[in-house]
Design goal:
Layout: E1 2-6, H1 10-22, E2 27-31, H2 35-44, E3 60-63, H3 67-70, E4 76-79, H4 86-95, E5 102-104, H5 123-130, E6 136-140, H6 145-149, E7 154-159, H7 163-173, E8 178-183, H8 186-208, H9 213-233, H10 244-255, H11 260-269, H12 274-281, H13 286-300, H14 306-315, H15 321-329
Parallel strand pairs: 1-2, 1-4, 2-3, 4-5, 5-6, 7-8
Antiparallel strand pairs: 6-7
Helix pairs in contact: 4-5, 8-9, 8-10, 8-11, 8-13, 9-10, 11-12, 13-14, 14-15
The chain binds 1,4-dihydronicotinamide adenine dinucleotide and 1,3-dihydroxyacetonephosphate.
GO molecular function, one term: NAD binding
Family: Belongs to the NAD-dependent glycerol-3-phosphate dehydrogenase family.
Binding site for substrate: 107, 260-261
Length: 338
């Protein structure tokens, strides 16, 4: 199989390494828009900027060729950019008349540009707008890039309504320490991937304020309820939220110190501004951008998401970390459940 990974950040690089290392006969190309970054990766046989100290296996090539040229002859296209570049990348693939399966790795809802109305879209909705002819899907689940690059066991979910996409993802990545599950519930998988990042910011805040393990377990339990409520209202199956892209990725991202979203919460608790926290990461923290669209989307379907809404208030600088906690604790008593 010939596969190309578009976007040479931490996750695209790790997954390209994983696919090339463990699948004999695969030709894996890691594509970056920045020619200088490609030169550096070629020289170092690693990605010093985004995933240092992880050596590229022999089967991994890097490329900065024009995208329309780079995708020729590929059997599978993986989009590994942040959510903010998904639309433009899909437009470029549509213009290049790509006919093979395409899957994205980004986790979030599209941000609504300032001054524009409407709700932020899920990745598959963006694709339906700009490249409806593509057979497409998402690869998601609890997966820190560094652990995948090191070859540590990781389970992922290949989500698509198209059997051909689920099959291509399994063929490319179900190998060695990577194990894939298939799921047709693209809505559930994408809602899980977006909302867990917002909850990870909240969990970082909770831990940064030393609120305790009881508080963190409570936050994650109610965060899972919020995620499920929103997903079901948008058409997802409730059981998807008990799976890898729901509970699984929530647990990982909210409690694992490799998470950038969790780190944002920890830094806000220390008193850093949002700009300072984001600048210090050197990588994207999607929850910062998705939080607003998640809450807007929930409001549009009449779903209450108190934790996510509080994260938005905090990110916008309208409340302090301490006030965020007080606000959640002071809510009226309610019956447990969704
Ligand atoms: N890092 C991780 O462990 C995981 C990340 N993800 C998701 O994958 C997505 C990417 O994350 P990371 O790789 O960690 O981000 P990163 O911040 O490490 O790298 C982002 C990369 O995207 C590139 N990029 C931005 N716009 C682009 C465009 N228009 N065309 C081509 N490349 C472009 C940047 O140059 C950079 O190399 C995010 O949505 C993230 O939530 C999902 C699972 C695991
Ligand atoms: O999605 C991830 C793990 O599954 C990575 O989370 P962060 O973006 O918070 O690092």
């Amino acid at each position: 199989m010939n596969l190309i990974v578009i976007g040479a950040g931490a996750w695209g690089t790790a997954l390209a390494i994983g696919a090339a290392r463990h699948t004999a006969g695969h030709q894996v190309t890691l594509w970056a828009r920045n020619a200088q970054q490609v030169q550096e990766m070629q020289a170092a046989r690693s990605n010093p900027r985004y995933l240092p100290d992880m050596a590229f296996p022999d089967g991994l090539q890097v490329s900065a060729a024009p995208l329309a040229q780079a995708v020729q002859g590929m059997d599978l296209v993986i989009i590994a950019t942040p959510m903010s570049a998904l639309r433009s990348t899909l437009q470029a693939l549509a213009a290049a008349q790509v006919r093979v399966p395409v899957a994205w790795l980004c986790k979030g809802f599209e941000a609504v540009a300032a001054g524009h109305s409407g709700v932020g879209l899920m990745p598959h909705e963006v694709c339906a707008q700009v490249a409806p002819q593509l057979a497409s899907g998402a690869l998601s689940g609890p997966s820190f890039a560094q652990e995948v690059a090191r070859g540590q066991p990781t389970l992922l979910v290949a989500a698509s309504r198209h059997a051909i996409v689920r099959q291509a993802l399994l063929e490319a990545f179900h190998t060695g320490p990577l194990r894939l599950y298939a799921n047709e519930d693209i809505v559930g998988v994408e809602v899980g991937g977006a909302v867990k990042n917002v909850m990870a910011i909240a969990a970082g805040l909770c831990d940064g304020l030393h609120l305790g393990l009881n508080a963190r377990a409570a936050l994650l339990t109610r965060g899972l309820a919020e995620m499920t409520r929103l997903g079901v209202a948008l058409g997802a199956k409730p059981e998807t939220f008990m799976g890898l892209s729901g509970l699984g990725d929530l647990m990982l991202t909210a409690t694992g110190d490799l998470s950038r979203n969790r780190k944002v919460g920890l830094l806000l608790a220390q008193g850093l501004t949002l700009a300072q926290a984001v600048d210090s990461l050197g990588h994207v923290a999607e929850g910062v951008y998705s939080a607003h669209t998640v809450v807007q989307r929930a409001q549009a379907v009449g779903v209450e998401m108190p934790i996510a809404a509080t994260v938005v208030e905090l990110l916008d600088g309208h409340i302090t970390p301490q006030a965020a906690v007080q606000r959640l604790m002071a809510r009226d008593p309610k019956h447990e459940g969704l």
